[in-house]
């Protein structure tokens, strides 16, 4: 049965990282399942529109231009009007995030019109994220509890995320659905990828690919790499973000006298080339409820080194696809040294990662689970408060 599904998110800009990637992934799943999807979001071009421009492939996109004050709770009457118009036209609403106007108004409107809704926290209910602006979040707990209590389910991307959620007293059930990856990604030739990226053909390359942010563990990664690397080894830091942190990383790389390349922001095609060129993908993050970049590295057949706070490791390590280390420079250095010295182990990990991604993250496999989940939610909600 074809269902009309409305997604609401405060922003789907490039700087939103994993949330924007998740929206694209779910659009692909809903398309594969035969549903009709609409996305309503604020138009924030200053956050980058590359990811947003690809969403019409799966969504009927409605952009709402925010007012002059474009914070989380400004988009204001225009966003509210759009949600009140669109929600009654759909069978199911999917809210992305908790602490913003799109989620609060989207939930209230769905409850008003009797439309069931799912809520994806995208890590925002993890204790790590709740420390940010904690006073305001707890002061307005009644708002968030209202949204959480009214949801048919809280959608999590990993079991550890589901186990750690803090819900301000709400008892809504928690369901786990991994974010899928495109099925049609073709492996690239390593030498050709290095040529296109202008990287040395014979270097051992460690890659970080993502948003430059304090939580991503780039300082211990850089220090650990400097301790573990041979003169010919190369660290590639691909991504954009915090300019002060970027400048600090550049200074530290100069002081440590290790080979580091900063590429700046890269698009999807260049990301795939960098993954094909890499020997090790590293993410020593303070906290990741899923980590799409790690999943993409596994799919590309790259050995991954992740911190013990990257929740996807709970799946990848038992599969033999990833190594885990603590977040100190010494522990990073030890793990990198072992991986860089053992090409056979890297190949085994890469093959295991590719097999794991094929079995667990293909759109077709996730779509089947999602279709069953949506059907179950619709049946249950028809007989409940909705």
Q: What do these coordinates show?
A:
It is globular and about 65 Å long. It contains 17 helices and 13 strands. It has two domains: 4-180 and 362-382, Glycogen Phosphorylase B (Rossmann fold); 190-360, Glycogen Phosphorylase B (Rossmann fold), CATH 3.40.50. It is of the alpha/beta class and 386 residues long.
Features:
Rossmann fold; about 375 residues; 2 domains; 17 helices; globular; alpha/beta; six-stranded parallel β-sheet; seven-stranded parallel β-sheet; single chain
Brief account:
Keywords: Glycosyltransferase, Transferase. Helices cover 45% and strands 16% of the residues.
Could you give the order of strands across the largest sheet?
Answer: 3-2-1-4-5-6-7
Distance between the termini: 19 Å
Level-1 CATH class name of the largest domain: Alpha Beta
CATH architecture tag of the largest domain: 3-Layer(aba) Sandwich
Going by CATH, what is the homologous superfamily of the largest domain? Glycogen Phosphorylase B
Biggest sheet features: 7 strands, parallel
Topology of this structure?
Layout: E1 4-9, H1 18-32, E2 36-42, H2 50-54, E3 59-64, H3 76-86, E4 92-96, H4 101-113, E5 117-120, H5 127-130, H6 134-139, H7 141-150, E6 153-156, H8 159-164, E7 174-176, H9 190-197, E8 205-209, H10 218-228, E9 234-238, H11 243-256, E10 260-264, H12 268-277, E11 280-283, H13 292-299, E12 303-307, H14 313-316, E13 322-325, H15 329-340, H16 343-360, H17 363-382
Parallel strand pairs: 1-2, 1-4, 2-3, 4-5, 5-6, 6-7, 8-9, 8-11, 9-10, 11-12, 12-13
């Amino acid at each position: 049965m074809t269902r009309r599904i409305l997604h609401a998110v405060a922003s789907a800009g490039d700087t939103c990282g994993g949330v924007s990637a998740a929206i694209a992934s779910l659009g692909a799943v809903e398309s594969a399942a035969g549903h009709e999807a609409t996305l309503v979001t604020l138009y924030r071009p200053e956050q980058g529109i590359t990811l947003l421009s690809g969403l019409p492939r799966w969504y009927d996109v409605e952009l709402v231009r925010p007012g002059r004050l474009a914070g989380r709770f400004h988009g204001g009457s225009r966003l509210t009007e759009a949600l009140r118009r669109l929600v009654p036209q759909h069978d199911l609403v999917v809210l992305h995030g908790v602490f913003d106007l799109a989620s609060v108004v989207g939930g209230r409107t769905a409850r008003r019109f009797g439309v069931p809704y799912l809520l994806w926290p995208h890590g925002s209910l993890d204790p790590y994220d709740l420390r940010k602006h904690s006073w305001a979040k707890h002061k307005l707990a009644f708002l968030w509890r209202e949204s959480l209590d009214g949801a048919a389910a809280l959608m999590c991307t990993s079991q550890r995320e589901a186990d750690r959620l803090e819900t301000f007293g709400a008892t809504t059930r928690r369901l786990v659905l991994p974010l899928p990856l495109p099925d049609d990604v073709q492996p690239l030739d390593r030498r050709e990828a290095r040529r296109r990226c202008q990287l040395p053909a014979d270097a051992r390359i460690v890659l970080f690919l993502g948003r430059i942010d304090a939580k991503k563990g780039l300082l211990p990664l850089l220090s650990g790499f400097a301790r573990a690397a041979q003169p010919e080894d190369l660290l590639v830091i691909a991504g954009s973000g915090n300019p002060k942190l970027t400048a600090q990383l550049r200074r530290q790389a100069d002081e440590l006298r290790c080979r580091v390349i900063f590429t700046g922001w890269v698009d999807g095609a260049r990301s795939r080339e960098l993954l094909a060129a890499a020997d090790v993908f590293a993410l020593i993050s303070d906290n990741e409820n899923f980590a799409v970049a790690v999943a993409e590295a596994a799919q590309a057949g790259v050995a991954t080194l992740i911190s013990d706070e990257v929740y996807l490791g709970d799946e990848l390590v038992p599969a033999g696809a990833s190594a885990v280390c603590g977040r100190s420079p010494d522990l990073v250095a030890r793990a990198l040294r072992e991986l860089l010295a053992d090409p056979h182990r890297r190949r085994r990990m890469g093959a295991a990662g590719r097999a794991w991604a094929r079995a667990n993250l293909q759109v077709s496999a996730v779509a089947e689970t999602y279709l069953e989940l949506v059907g179950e939610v619709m049946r249950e909600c028809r007989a409940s408060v909705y």
